[in-house]
């Protein structure tokens, strides 16, 4: 074991990545609509992956090169 805790930190990071991947796979299997999948994946990334925010957008091929936000999730901080 590394005295600085590096091994334990790496193990926790890998475990979190595996939990996120597993939850994403479950979301993919259960989604029946495209928007449900996008919202679900954003929630997984925030809730399991530990990110503060996640979003999904579609690029529109127009003159302005618009991005249309389809889904997002934000970590809520309750004091």
> What ranges have pLDDT less than 50 throughout 5 or more consecutive residues?
none
Give the assembly state of these chains.
single chain
DSSP strand count: 2
Measured as a percent range, the helix fraction is: 40-55%
Structural class of the secondary structure composition?
alpha+beta
Can you summarize the main beta sheet? 2 strands, antiparallel
Form type: elongated
Mean pLDDT: 93
Percent of residues in β-strands: 15-25%
- Element-by-element helix/strand order: HHEE
What's the SSE blueprint?
Blueprint: H1 6-30, H2 34-47, E1 53-59, E2 67-74
Antiparallel strand pairs: 1-2
Helix pairs in contact: 1-2
Explain how this protein is built.
The protein is of the alpha+beta class and 79 residues long. Helix content is 49%, strand content 19%. The chain has 2 helices and 2 strands; from the N terminus they run ααββ. It has helices at residues 6-30, 34-47, and strands at 53-59, 67-74. It has a two-stranded antiparallel ribbon.
């Amino acid at each position: 074991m590394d005295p600085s805790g590096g091994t334990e930190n790496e193990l926790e990071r890998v475990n979190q990545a595996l939990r996120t991947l597993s939850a994403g796979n479950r979301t993919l299997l259960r989604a029946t609509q495209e928007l449900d999948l996008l919202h679900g994946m954003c929630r997984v990334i925030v809730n399991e992956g530990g990110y503060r925010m996640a979003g999904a957008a579609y690029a529109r091929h127009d003159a302005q090169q618009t991005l249309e936000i389809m889904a997002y999730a934000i970590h809520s901080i309750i004091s």
